[in-house]
Amino acid sequence: MITPQEITSRLMAYSKNVDAGLVEKAFIFAIDRHGTQLRESGDPFFSHPIKVAEILVSLKTDQETVIAGLLHDTVEDTDTSIAEIEENFGSGISKIVDGVTKLSQFECGPLAVKQAENFKKLLIAAASDIRVLIIKLADRLHNMRTLQYKRREDRRKLIARETLEVYAPLADRIGITSIKDELQDTAFLELHPKIYDSIKSRLKNLYDSSEEIINTITFKLHELAKSVDINCSITGRLKSPYSIWSKMNVRNISFEQLSDIMAFRIIVGNVQLCYQALGCIHRNYLVVPGRFRDYISTPKNNSYQSLHTCIIGPLNKRIEIQIRTKDMHDVAEYGIAAHWDYKERGPKSQRSEEQRWLRSLVKILENTSGMDEFLENSKTEILTDHIFCITPKGTIISLPIGASALDFAYAIHSDIGNHAISAKVNGQIVPLKTILSNGDQVDITTDPNHVPKPHWEEYVISMKAKVNLRKAINGIEKEKIEMIGKSVFDEFFKKVNRVVSENDINRMASKMKFDSKVAMFQAIGNGSIHIKEILVCYNSVCSGEEIELLPESDNGDSNEPFPIVGINKENVLQVDCCTPVPGDKITGVILENQEIEIHIDECNILPERIANTYAKAIELSWEKSAFEASRKYLTKISIITIYEQGNLSKIASIIEDRGATIINLKIGEKIDSLVKIQLEIEVHDITQLTIILSNLNKASFTHGVNRKWH
Asked: Which residues are catalytic?
């Protein structure tokens, strides 16, 4: 295990103003606070933060980062407070530790939710101080190195999957290649051990027979460089198992068909020599078409710079070659940790591309509606490399690989995207869904009267396009909802023989704290207020005879646990996939934690839940108390209806005439002359619900009524 003196010595090799006493103090503090705690491997717990600090030193991070790495688990896993950290080590280190601690609080729960929430918090924290992210990556790297000691296989696979889908891409995004590669390989080993072992075995056999080949190719490339007076260092290697597996998947080929599993790196003194070395190699060896990339003139978003080419090289072997300077190599290996300005002047002074990227992504989060959408969008933005396209005026637009002309339009401005009708790519008129390539010149044609279509969401992959497109479509949906709300309003007052003046409508909207009558109609249309609330308001502000309201029925408590025979009601877990009511045939699924999910027998996901390794299915029946007249239960129905004025009001009347209560509704997209309406209603039992469904089905304006479950 590394000593505090070794940490200090390695820090001094690349950083100024190292406080050896403070490093040693943090080292001893971590050991003291973690005390006799043990890891699942049986090692002392304090060995983990010390290993994390060692990783941070290898990345050449600053002293504050290394010390925060030593202390990063003290607040979470001991009785140490952030105030103590600040008192002993200063506010800078305490803020970093606090950031890492807050992230760790979200490492629990189901995979999808956990990933999304972790990812969001991680980015937000990293946007304020990138060192939080670097420590978290080092923490994850050491945890992956010791993953085999986790006793539960499902937990190991969950951690590995999250590592592969979230942490490795993040390491790649801020350019720390060394961490990215190891995270990918260790996660790959856990998730696909047989494939990993097979590739590793083949690589070993290949290396045993290819070691001399690699040495020979390295020597010949070195001799070629010397012949044109280029001083350089050259190294060769076989690619990693995960990298090879990815290539096999992308190209849909076998291991035996891979011809470029050898990679060579040439390090030269300056940029000019990079291009000289490239020219020398291309003059002497056959170049593989389409494999050259110039990341020096056009760096990646993570500041990565290098020349990439693929040749049929010495010994007639197909090989990949990277050519870069020493500074470029440091950035490639250590990413943002290689930037001296953040180490020497502090993170607030840094304005690197990585920091701007993180901040822009956090800004987009504000317009993202849900965690699933955030995870989907942000992973698309991060996991892909980018292409560069050009406007007619010469502006370069960066887009994810796979982006369309519509993505390009939104990248320029949201108004251009919203009103786009077609595009010209390299002078040729093409549809908006056309996928763009690197270097395309794109000109967007717009029409101010044109509006976005819902199916456009299938054409875009960039976050900016998705957010602005959804915002525009929601604006169109609001107009539709306003129309439905006004229809419900007009239908009701027509039914009670009242004419409501424009002035009275405005007074009612003001009384109910709406900014305008439009906002009030939208609230009626989307179901957030009930027409009966409008009537109460009408009676309070409008002159003339009051409209008498029918007394409300006792709804009971729809949130009360289901009255089921023979189970502990406190263990009942209500699910959203189906919504049982008394009289339904029901099955219980007992989970590992002894909670019980209640499903309708016909629920589509019930077989999947029963198939769960830790689940057990039991037949259930309702208690007599479930059928008491005072009790109501929330359920969901879905209606396909003709899109015309008054139909929503008619649907509401059919439901409420049978004694049920509408709790919530959602209006779907209009397709031809039909629209889908989803409602949450409260009913007494299956008999009442069946009558309602039957009456809705008989209505001339409906084209299908069903109970809604996934």
From this structure: 76-77
